[in-house]
Amino acid sequence: MPKARGRPGRNKGGRNGAKGETQASDDDVSSEVLSHYSSTSETASVPEEAVNDTVNEQMAQEEAEDKLKEYIDNTMHKSAKTRQNALESLKLAFSSKILSDFLVERRLTLTDCLERCLKKGKSEEQALAAVVATLLCIQLGTSKEAEDVFEALKSILINILTDKSASLAARHNCATALGTSCYVAANEEEDLASCLTCLESVFSASYLKGDGSVPSHNSQTQILHCNALQSWSLLVTICPPSKIQKFLENHMPKLPGLLCSDNVSLRIAAGETIALLFELARRTDQDYFYEDTGQLCEKLKALATDGNKHRAKNDRRKQRSIFRDVLHSIEDEECPEETVKFGIECLYIDSWVRRRAYDVFKDVLGSGVRHHLQYNELLRDIFELGSPLVLDAAAIKANKISRFEKHHYNSALFKARTKARNKVRDKRADVL
Questions:
Q1: Which residues, other chains included, contact 366 with Cβ-Cβ below 8 Å and sequence gap of 6+?
Q2: Whole-prediction pTM
Q3: Quick check: 177 and 130 in contact, CB under 8 A?
Q4: Residue-by-residue DSSP string for 17-62
Q5: How far apart are CA 309 and CA 116, in angstroms?
Q6: Beta-bridge partners for 346
Q7: Residues 147-158: tens digit of each pLDDT
Q8: HSE-up of residue 226 (Cα within 13 Å, Cβ side)
Q9: 210 or 88, which is more confident?
Q10: Average pLDDT in the 390-415 region?
């Protein structure tokens, strides 16, 4: 083609042909160049988008950390309302996100803030500070920093818990905070023993009197005793076998008396604690025998079939369900199983020990418990879930259940539940 352009003596048709070929080839070249640049720009946009996403994530993280710093500063504000709002914000952040790296660097400042709120704050502020202290220990896990936080706040929590002049709302949360933070962060047997003794001194006030009568307490005091009993039973699960035997001797004769309480939460807590102690006793001694088992089972059967109309319908339903499980556990040595799904994983709860731990974390973390089960190393260690899974978007999408599958699963579950309830109703009709 370059030769044709250099020979003007060729005929017109030849020149036109060469010119046509030249235009076609130029068009091809230009189209190739354009396609090259477009493909280059497309490939260049992919890493550019990834960079933008990374930058956006970093900016969002920095903004979130700035807000957390502001909340921590506001816990020292002169206004009580501002302090309470700051504690509420910290409570929400700690329960819904994993912030251990951020908190390790600021644990001393935050511990001082919480100490001041607990010592000088009023009822609501003390109650919120106790919850935030618990969440801080859960965030820091089994590290030395968590132990330092617990050591700094333990005596204050005990003082508020045992102070009868303190508000009951603050004492409720301090009972939970003392048990949970000790369970998570205590590293000395003396700490465990002192917390157990303190909690025991609180809930034992609901034991039957010497003449066998039920002590009279208002509903808020009964909730305090319930929280103290639940925290005590949590700590019992990490005690050595020699201590378990002592607890059985001291408390098994008295705990059935709490089943006579007029507070449904306290009755349920007592029943679950009895089942827990039976489970721990059988782990230590397979031939464990409680001499008043027959009388205890009669009480449990009565509560499992309780139909007193003066009690709320929801309370009766919840009580019957729990005490059927407790009775089944004591008579047949089997714990009811439960499966908790989070992400693409499952947590199997197949013992009273595991159930007690899960219930505590569920109460403290609220709706954030599943997020913490996925990513919090402390919880994954406690429930033997292994290291947190690292999943890409494709893997997460592949494991999602479609709406059609969900509908069929729920329909099958509904039919099975209806059949089971009808069988129970038929049995009740036969009895009547």
A1: 95
A2: 0.79
A3: yes
A4: HHHHHHHHHHHHHHHHHHHHHHHHHHHHHHHHHHHHHHHHHHHHHH
A5: 47
A6: 341
A7: 999 999 999 999
A8: 22
A9: 88
A10: 63
